[in-house]
Amino acid sequence: MCTGIKNGKQHTFNICISSLLFLFVAINNTDASKNGPKTDGKWIIVIDAGHGGKDPGAPGSFSMEKNINLAIALKTGEYLEENLKNVKVVYTRNNDSFVDLKERPKIANRHNADLFISIHSNSAKSKNVTGAETYIMGLAQDEANMAVAMKENEVMLLEDDYSTKYQGFDPKSPESYIIFTLTQNLFQKQSIDLASKVQAEFSERVNRNDRGVKQAGFWVLFNTTMPAILIETGFITSPVEEKYLNSAEGQDYLASAIYRACKEYMDGIDSKSGISAGRQNDNTVKAGTGYASPDSSNELVYMIQVSASGTKTEIKPENFRGLKDISEIYTEPRYRYATGRFTDYSEAVKYRKQVESIYPGAFVIAVKGNKILPLHQALEQKRKK
Length: 385
Ligand SMILES: [Zn+2]
Fold this sequence. Notes:
By secondary structure, this protein is an alpha/beta fold. It folds into 2 domains: 34-272, Aminopeptidase (3-Layer(aba) Sandwich); 277-384, no CATH class. Helices cover 35% and strands 19% of the residues. It is built from 12 helices and 11 strands. The chain has helices at 4-7, 10-20, 65-83, 103-110, 143-153, 162-165, 188-205, 219-222, 239-246, 248-273, 345-355, 375-384, and strands at 43-49, 87-91, 115-122, 132-137, 210-216, 228-235, 301-309, 326-331, 334-342, 363-368, 371-373. Helix 3 links the parallel strand 1 and strand 2. Helix 3 packs across helix 10 (248-273) and helix 9 packs across helix 10. The chain is globular. The chain starts with a helix and ends with a helix. The protein binds zinc ion. Residues 50-51, 57, 65, 120, 152 line the site of zinc ion.
């Protein structure tokens, strides 16, 4: 099993990518480095209504998944924009149109989105299966989760020439999914945090059967450069839930739950970013070996992001819980603050573990020329050198 990167074992990792990832070169045209539109420091939330157009998604007895997803997506967006002045919503589709699977994460990356939320409805062979579950990117832990991801990825087969467009990825082959181990650490904590809040809202406030937070390899989550989740709102194959998912009331409850989860998540991040309160901390984090020279600005390096904020923070240790060596990276509309600078990914992962004692939400980012690259793409670039 290919878990080298998780364990920081460069050796195993190299074997993984050379045997499997050669297919995925240049999959993503560095969308993350493109400037998004001007949004005056707003949170940008991309809402992705699954399927659409010629792709109906899972069939119910009287309805189609694509229409349920769109209705809940639009309502969620309305809730967010009407209630939160600091949010701009971007939809991957706002009508019954077909959007390529690979285009969906690109839309989010182009807008430098802060959150990506994909909305789907589930299906099962048995009519008795009910409940909501929320996925984050990762390697599926069991066959049922893998099957959900396979189903949602299969839409790429509808595209002309999909084997070229998706660089040989076969949505039906379990082996193809090993590529997704690469992204296990990327925004995982933030994504779990948001996913957990969605599930809590669903079960506590909307009375849904809570199937929990799960992970599996979804193409739409794989290529995003921000915290990203995929929500399976309920089972279209259950007569009770199909009725609920198609009712205005049901859609409204589900959308309001997703909205509240987002709000709670953003409140948490914004309060964490309010680090100018001057909290002193004597913790000193020592960098390991593999430290890159601080002036190598155009070199691809790995850093540890500790906070993000819509406003600029003066770089001094007391503003960063005592951490020295903080760099500012501006990715519109937010300032990101990161520490450490490594040419070696596994060293960055080790350092992150130290930083976590001070900043529990810290995570590794890949930076080149003051731009953030998707982590898997950075790792691939390094490998080719
Ligand atoms: Zn779906």
